[in-house]
Write a structure and sequence with these properties.
Length: about 400
């Protein structure tokens, strides 16, 4: 199924099912009066359907929550693309795949996952913000504690989650993920410790023979998921950027999925050099290559988050998404080029970009990068030490303030 088909199914089928479920769910909640205390912990399932990069941003918090559950009882439910990344990095104890390749497969695999959720978990964390079908999954699982995000756009979620964390699409998404830890008595998320452990892990994941480029080299992540392809730079733009005199002494290595290989080849043809590793490496092996690079050039994608967590100097271009909502301040050597047009950000805010793919914002960001392609020190090299947020538990009728710090 195309990304447009998936969106329509989520919107129309998900909306229809939620309308049917609203009344029964509210009535059963009043009749059953289940104990929704989070102190009783058997198992926890995390739901993430799209965007492995967002899952990476959530992992410092999820990893800390994982420690609060019995060994072997922390699960991930998601689509194959997200599952494959998480499994390769060993983030969860077990992985439950929801196959969205067709409507039949979506229904079949969803029923299997729902059965597992109901039998093996008493906590569910929904990391999706706008999806209607993940809300349906959460309700149909009948898991005792359902933790999810709500905002003024997705206000209808308030009738389906037992524990609600208020979300702002214009705010720093990583801090909202940190706030989820507060439901389990966690008031500090060890981001620095997570990044150090991640670096030690991926340095052991050497790429296959012949795929480790000679040094010095720069790594390039030019691809992203189908959710927001407007984030990309074109091959001719990459060719001009990477063909600059500043990089003449460095080899250039292109990383990404198999679907990104053709664009990498087109860029290599323009600059006359480079190594195309797209589709040849696992995510852990790609991270290993990034970790040894002199610098990383990319767009808003998981590979950029990996490079930043490894402390690699980065150069990135943003347009349809706002870096202030995606990039946790880590005190890195980096250059972030972002031209905020009146229509930006649009991804994760609008159903479809108003430009319908014209992506003038990325063209302007590229022009800014061409003015100086060398990484420069971050303008804000400080850690955000704490996040203040608002939550609502089942026994409460008004919101309460919570604060979680990032260490």
């Amino acid at each position: 199924m195309t990304i447009q088909t998936r969106r329509r199914i989520d919107y129309w089928l998900g909306g229809f099912l939620l309308a049917l479920l609203y009344g029964p769910v509210r009535c059963l909640g009043l009749l059953l009066r289940r104990d929704h205390s989070t102190s009783r912990r058997c198992g926890c399932v995390v739901m993430k359907m799209v965007g492995a990069g967002s899952l990476f941003l959530a992992m410092p918090s999820m990893n800390e929550i994982r420690r609060r559950f019995p060994s072997g009882s922390f699960y991930l439910a998601g689509t194959p693309a997200v599952i494959n990344v998480a499994r390769d990095l060993g983030w969860f104890d077990e992985y439950w795949t929801i196959d969205d390749s067709s409507l039949f497969q979506l229904v079949r695999t969803s029923l299997i996952v729902l059965w597992r959720m109901g039998r093996r978990t008493d906590h569910l964390i929904d990391l999706e913000v706008h999806s209607r079908l993940t809300t349906v999954f959460a309700v149909l699982s009948m898991v005792r504690n359902r933790i999810g995000f709500v905002d003024e756009i997705a206000f209808w979620r308030r009738g389906f989650y037992t524990h609600m964390t208020f979300f702002n699409v214009h705010g720093p998404v990583y801090l909202f993920y940190d706030l989820l830890a507060s439901w389990f008595g966690i008031d500090a998320v060890p981001v620095t410790g997570f990044n150090a452990k991640f670096r030690a892990q991926i340095m052991m994941a050497a790429p296959p023979e012949g795929a480790q480029p000679p040094r010095p080299y720069v790594a390039v992540g030019h691809g992203c998921s189908d959710m927001g392809a407007e984030r990309k730079l074109r091959p001719d733009e990459w060719g001009r950027l990477l063909g600059s005199d500043d990089l003449v002494t460095h080899d250039i290595v292109f990383l990404g999925a198999a679907a990104d290989a053709a664009e990498a080849e087109a860029t290599i043809a323009l600059i006359g050099r480079g190594q195309n590793l797209c589709g040849r490496l696992s995510i852990a092996q790609s991270a290993h290559v990034i970790g040894h690079a002199s610098a990383y050039f990319g767009i808003d994608s998981m590979l950029l988050h990996i490079a930043r967590s490894l402390g690699v100097p980065t150069v990135s271009a943003f347009g349809p998404t706002d870096p202030a909502t995606r990039l946790r301040p880590l005190g890195l050597l980096e250059r972030v080029e972002y031209v905020r047009l009146p229509c930006s950000p649009c991804i994760h805010v609008n159903e479809t970009p108003p430009c319908q793919g014209a992506r003038d914002c990325m063209a302007l960001a590229f022009q800014g990068l061409m003015s100086n392609s060398r990484p420069v020190p971050s303008l804000e090299p400080r850690l955000v030490r704490s996040a203040l947020g608002w939550t609502m538990a089942p026994s409460e009728t008004s919101v309460r303030a919570v604060r979680v710090s990032a260490e």
